[in-house]
């Protein structure tokens, strides 16, 4: 199994405190129709930290069923408890997901040996594993040496790299041949130039066709078209992070009519000044924004 191209880190839509299953199915079908290469339900963009275990499993089931094997589903199964991560990954495999994405354990601040043992334990589920390196939110950086060591496990097949460091990606690829997927929309094109195979994208929740088109253009050798797409999307990439993800993307989803922007505490709605910045960025791109 290889996960390449534009893969969307799906939001989890809510309605009156519960998962909006109808909206979620609609989002999945829209993504597939627009050429997305894969879907990641219940990652951190999907607000996994505030979902119950029952809800977490339900979202995985819904996305797997709605995707109907048209694109791979890479379920978010990360946790700062290894036992919990193993349990969620086993469930994802049983539900029919084609892979699992696991952020580095947060707060525990494990050593590099602890990180290795954590991922090695999850890998025993035999589901293809995508490591997720995001030190800005998990505190620890999965070192290139640890990633190279983990890559020797046959089903550890990729890493979502969101350290923001070009050197990190270069270092990883100098040590091993594991697939790199960008974890930052604004760095997708630069990382592909280094050898990344695509992106796990937040922005593609609202621009699935455009993000996929940029990635496809790059791999087709049309680098000018890819650069033009990158520069056009860049202001939106920045706007998606004017507040903590997924606050801006969920607001954008509401403004574009996909779902509500309902969040769960401790996340809360955008400030009024930032709402105006986001609306302007969407309009500048050429998107039709509702008056909500």
Salient structural properties:
single chain, 292 residues, alpha/beta, TIM Barrel, five-stranded parallel beta sheet
Structural notes for this entry:
The structure is a single chain. Helix 1 (21-33) runs parallel beside helix 2 (53-67). The protein has one domain (5-220): TIM Barrel (Alpha-Beta Barrel), CATH 3.20.20.70. The chain contains twelve helices and ten strands. The chain is of the alpha/beta class. The strands form three sheets. Strands 5-6-7-8-9 form a five-stranded parallel sheet.
CATH superfamily: Aldolase class I
- Structure annotation, total helices: 12
Residue fraction in strands: 5-15%
Assign an overall shape: globular
Query: How many domains make up the 3D coordinates?
Result: 1
Determine the fraction of residues in helical runs and give it as a percent range. 40-55%
The average pLDDT score comes to: 96
Structural class: alpha/beta
List the helices and strands and how they pair.
Layout: E1 5-9, E2 14-15, E3 18-19, H1 21-33, E4 38-40, H2 53-67, E5 74-76, H3 82-95, E6 99-103, H4 112-123, E7 129-133, H5 135-138, H6 144-150, E8 156-161, H7 166-175, E9 179-182, H8 188-194, E10 198-201, H9 208-219, H10 223-239, H11 247-255, H12 272-285
Parallel strand pairs: 1-4, 1-10, 5-6, 6-7, 7-8, 8-9
Antiparallel strand pairs: 2-3
């Amino acid at each position: 199994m290889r996960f390449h191209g534009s893969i969307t880190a799906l939001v989890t839509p809510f309605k009156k405190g519960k998962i909006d299953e109808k909206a979620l199915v609609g989002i999945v079908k829209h993504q597939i129709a627009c050429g997305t290469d894969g879907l990641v339900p219940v990652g951190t963009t999907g607000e996994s930290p505030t979902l119950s275990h029952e809800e977490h499993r339900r979202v995985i089931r819904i996305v797997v069923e709605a995707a109907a094997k048209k694109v791979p589903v890479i379920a978010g199964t990360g946790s700062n408890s290894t036992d919990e991560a193993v349990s969620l990954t086993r469930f994802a495999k049983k539900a029919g997901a084609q892979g699992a994405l696991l952020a580095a354990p947060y707060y525990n601040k494990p050593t590099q040996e602890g990180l290795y043992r954590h991922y090695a334990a999850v890998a025993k589920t035999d589901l293809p594993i995508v490591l997720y390196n995001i030190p800005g939110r998990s505190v620890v950086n999965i070192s290139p040496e640890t990633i190279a060591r983990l890559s020797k496990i046959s089903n550890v097949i990729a890493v979502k790299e969101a350290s923001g460091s070009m050197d990190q990606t270069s270092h990883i690829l100098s040590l091993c041949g594991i697939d790199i997927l960008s974890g930052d929309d604004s760095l997708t094109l630069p990382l592909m130039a280094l050898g990344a195979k695509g992106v796990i994208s937040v922005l593609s929740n609202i621009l699935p066709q455009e993000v996929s088109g940029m990635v496809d253009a790059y791999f087709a050798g049309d680098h000018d078209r890819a650069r033009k797409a990158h520069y056009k999307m860049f202001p939106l990439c920045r706007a998606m992070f004017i507040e903590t993800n997924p606050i801006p993307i969920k607001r954008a989803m509401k403004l574009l009519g996909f779902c509500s922007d309902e969040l769960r505490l401790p996340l809360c709605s955008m400030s009024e000044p930032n709402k105006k910045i986001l609306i302007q960025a969407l309009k500048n791109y050429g998107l039709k924004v509702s008056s909500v």
